[in-house]
Amino acid sequence: MKRHPSAFAAPVAAALLAIPASGEVPAPPESLQLFPAEGTTVEPNDGGTVRTEGDVAVVDIAPGHDWGGVRFVFAEPFVLNAYETVSVEVSNRTDRALDFAFYGIHRGFFTWHASRRFRLGPHEGQVVTAPHPRKCYALARGSREIDGMIGYDSKNFFHSFDTSGAIDHYVVCCYSRKEPARFDVKAIRADGGRPGFTLDVDDAFFPFVDEFGQYAHADWPGKVHSLEELKAAAEAEDEALGADPVSPIPGADRFGGWGAGPQLEATGMFRTEKRNGRWWLVDPDGHLFFSLGCNYVRLQCRTPVLRRERFFSWLPARDDPPFADCWKDGKLNWLGDSLYKGAGAVPQFDFAMANQKRLYGADWKKAYVDRQHRRMRSWGFTSMGNWSDPEIMAASRTPYVDNFNLDGVRKLEGDKNGVWRKFPDVFDPDFASNVVACALKTRTPKSRTDPWCIGWFVENELHWGRGNRTDDMIDAVVGSPDDQPAKVEYLRRLRAAHGEDATFESATAEDREAFAAEIAERYFSTVKAAIGQVAPGRLYLGCRFHNSYPAALRAAAKYCDVVSFNCYKDLPEIPRFPADAVDKPTIIGEFHFGSLDRGAMHAGLVPCRDMADRAAHYKAYVRAALKDPNLVGVHWFFWCDMPLTGWMDGEDYMTGILTVTDTPHPEMVEATRELARELYAAP
Question: Is CATH 2.60.120.430 the classification given to domain 2-205?
Fold first, then answer.
């Protein structure tokens, strides 16, 4: 380790953790130099060697080190959450182009913060800036954690706890691979100091949820303060919907397709067609259709109350007639192994439903169903995405997707990486018949023949393997009990290829890849056959990939009518299909952007500066999708902001089109209407 000598550089620590245990947090300076700075040391990273030339760190990297570079270690943790951006000044000292990355990290939690990947040409130098929109607030020193909330509870959400309040070091690395490389780093600085970057959780913080389910300790445009304001907001929106009852899509037909466009074959069902080099959905009336959709068009705002009663300023009695059915007891499958381990059925309360009852009384559901269809039409949405309310779906007023999961199908017991459930064992003798049984359990039976149903997703974010590899899938097979059908079949194949003494260790890379390819082939072909048996002609929309390996993509393209991906990035970037894959359209099943400026405590997976920035990102994402000749739709996640205190799995993301009080975010509504006018601008 080398301590960077700099007698004149401002000490980093002076502006870092000068945060009191309670009380007002001082605003950080507008800018903070992290290197060169007193107390900052430089260390090599993964095959790099570092020397200093004055105030410059010069890095040499030997061949074969993908992460070779330099790390800048701070004397005390740097509060990244206090700043909008981090900039690094880097120069390439070679005669060839080099690829770089830089990122901040807390040693205890390997999560990148304020990171960028970039390329520098031969002898090129740049100041490269990474934004740092906050996902949530950093907890002030001495603060309590908040049980059951992602970003604030390290005990139950280790990988989701916000660590941007304590960055130990920054890394600048170069992917040198086969050739040696040299670069230098002249400066690292943080800019855009922002006040209010921490949350002080002490006794006075509780309760922090008001009677309407909103954050109690702040105000913002659109916040509801009384029943009168709640009703006034609903009346104002009714007036706006009445003024704009027609879709903003020029020439829209009854489904939201391009009725003014070319007349294609009308089959009475949604289908796909490639036209002039671009894939499209075609609606039942034979018109081009783009699925601009939103997940969870429903009330889905129940939040666990057990052991968290102090969070809420108001909770009705369980037998209080107006609000009794806002309560529900249920097992929380994802929180059950942590916060609620052994608790069984956990009491949950739905503030969004309570607000509907305040507005419309006992007959609220009828008014709610009607309102959602009016909104979708007026705002320009053409689809309801996954997990929407069956009663809303069944009204035959807005196209929708349905779904089913492979519950009850035998799983690979060795699958340790499944996000929501273990991967199915496709070699189980009962796999095909069990998939058919599952296909009979979509959210609404009507979707088997309903012309308003676009198609079916099956499963969600199955774990196919990290980093484009088959290793995770094979590890799941080998790590299963000896009687697991997939494990038995894998060993049989290995012995057929390598002799009766072969073991799993005998497998070559080709053996592993071939068996993983067979798993994918059996999975997608079996699901496709089940849909064909239960709902002939219904589009199979895939498994909503969030990771994959090439053979899985190849099989999906072979059997799915539309291949689906969930893509939480700034733009719709999805994996490339293998060159020999069947040409098929794609759809994005989930994406979102969030911000903290409207009473939120978590901005979701892709945070933005504020609501205006969020709307701008939304428009850029959809416009990029409209330019992609393979994409036939994108679905926002989701309709209503999540509960402030988190729902069934602790997610507390404020990424909705609507608030918990059923008030639209006007920026998101206007963005959707603007996009709707462009859906069929250049088909």
Answer: yes
